[in-house]
Amino acid sequence: MDENAVGPLATSIEDFNSVFIRLPSQGQLSFSSLSVLHTLSRRGPSRLSDLVESEQIKQPALTAAAAKLERDGLITRHPDPADGRATLISLSSAGAAIVAQRRKGRVERLEQLVARLTSAEQAQLLSIGPVLDEVVRLSHTATLEEEE
Question: Are 96 and 90 a contacting pair, CB within 8 Å?
Answer without folding.
Answer: no
